[in-house]
Specification:
Shape: globular
Strand content: 15-25%
Number of domains: 2
Order of helices and strands: EHEHHEHEHEHHH
CATH class of the largest domain: Alpha Beta
Largest sheet: 5 strands, parallel
Helix content: 40-55%
CATH superfamily of the largest domain: Flavodoxin domain
Number of helices: 8
Strand order of the largest sheet: 2-1-3-4-5
Structural class: alpha/beta
Radius of gyration: 19 Å
Distance between the termini: 70 Å
CATH topology of the largest domain: Rossmann fold
Bound molecules: flavin mononucleotide
């Protein structure tokens, strides 16, 4: 039997991003099941022209492609958009699968739905089989990839990723139940606001901006 190849494409422009952690986690899960895995940064391939041919070659040999990225202004990061626009017209003999994992700063997973719909359109235009999208809120909580150590609080993520790996390995789309599972909120809204406000105040104090926090310099 020939080995199948998984290509994880990182959409975050940040070094050491949550998206990269997720990409590598999924790749490791498939590698443990005998897949050949590759991980590439879309931003790096856009910024450094000499890296584009390598990305294109990896894209052409992949059996399944996973897009792992952060939500930026309700959409995809700009360099990721540019990369997908360049990849979509590439002709290929095979029809690989494609899924996406989008995580955002806000609590609600539904913030990611438009971005995931854009990824589905990319898959359609590129001639890839759409295998589903994972929408995850409070992505910052996953920073460092410690969801397995977070126990019950992040069980929906640990289980959701395990089910995703299982489905991809079985050659199936990500089940609807898995896509629904990862949308669960990490904490109640009031707690998110409390923690969010506290960290904003801490940052303001750190930058000596405590007394400017309500400033509206452009208000007439
Ligand atoms: C420029 C920028 C725009 C962002 N826009 C949104 C947004 O529209 N909605 C949201 O919930 N989070 C937004 N975020 C937060 C990121 O999605 C979040 O911090 C994410 O976990 C970063 O993932 P990464 O480490 O993979 O880059 C934004 C962050 C940045 C830097």
């Amino acid at each position: 039997m020939t080995t199948r190849t998984f290509l994880a494409l990182i959409g975050s422009p940040r070094a050491k991003s949550t998206s990269e952690t997720i990409a590598r986690y999924l790749a490791d899960g498939l590698a443990a099941r005998g897949w050949t895995t590759e991980v590439r940064s879309l931003s790096a391939a856009i910024r450094h022209a000499e890296r584009w041919p390598d990305l294109e070659a990896a894209y052409q040999r992949a059996d399944v492609i996973g897009l792992c990225f952060p939500l930026y202004v309700d959409c995809l990061p700009a360099e990721m958009t540019e990369a997908l626009e360049r990849l979509a017209p590439i002709a290929r003999d095979t029809r690989p699968g494609c899924f996406a994992v989008c995580q955002c700063g806000f609590l609600e997973a539904e913030q990611n739905d438009t971005a995931l719909a854009i990824c589905r359109e990319f898959a359609r235009d590129a001639g890839l089989d759409w295998l589903g999208g994972l929408a995850i809120g409070t992505g910052g909580a996953l920073n460092g990839g410690n969801w397995e150590k977070m126990g019950k609080m992040a069980a929906h993520i640990t289980d959701g990723f395990a089910q995703t790996i299982e489905a991809i390995d079985a050659g199936a789309p990500i089940p609807d139940a898995t896509q629904a599972l990862v949308r669960k909120r990490f904490c109640p809204t009031w707690m998110y606001w409390l923690i969010g406000n506290a960290s904003m105040l801490t940052e303001a104090r750190k930058h000596g901006a405590m007394w400017k926090i309500t400033a509206r310099p452009y208000a007439r």
